[in-house]
Amino acid sequence: MKRYKRIRDLREDSDITQTKMAEKLNISQRTYSRYENADSLMPLDILVQIADIHGVSIDYLLERTDVPGMYPRR
């Protein structure tokens, strides 16, 4: 399943290991790997943190748009 392909691609493009990303998210590497490989559903709070780390929108992470930019905050 390619649900989180863009998340993996962004991480790899940033030269961040799964271990380092897991540390940033305060979760184990195994848990992060399960999320990235779509073996477990990724909680919304983790998705938000990943979007913030990469400076993109959640819609971009989930391939709902090809525009990576964040939406303006209200």
User: What's the CATH architecture name?
Assistant: Orthogonal Bundle
- The radius of gyration computed from the alpha-carbon positions, rounded to a whole number of angstroms, is 12 Å
Number of helices in the DSSP assignment = 5
Average residue-wise pLDDT: 90
Strands, total number? 0
Biggest sheet layout: none
Overall shape: it is globular
Quickly give the structural class: mainly alpha
Helix content: 40-55%
Poorly predicted tracts of residues: none
What share of residues are in beta strands? under 5%
Distance between the termini: 34 Å
CATH top level label: Mainly Alpha
GO molecular function, one term: DNA binding
InterPro entries: Cro/C1-type_HTH, Lambda_DNA-bd_dom_sf
Pfam family, one: HTH_3
Protein name: Transcriptional regulator, Cro/CI family
Verbal overview:
The chain is mainly alpha-helical and 74 residues long. The protein has a single domain (5-61), classed as lambda repressor-like DNA-binding domains (434 Repressor (Amino-terminal Domain)), CATH 1.10.260.40. The protein is 54% helix and 0% strand. The chain has helices spanning 5-13, 18-25, 29-36, 44-54, 58-61. Helix 2 crosses helix 3 (29-36). The longest helix is centred in the middle third of the chain and has 11 residues, at 44-54. It is globular. The model has no long low-confidence stretch (mean pLDDT 90).
Structure summarized in a few sentences:
It comes from Marvinbryantia formatexigens DSM 14469. This protein has 74 residues and is mainly alpha-helical. Helix content is 54%, strand content 0%.
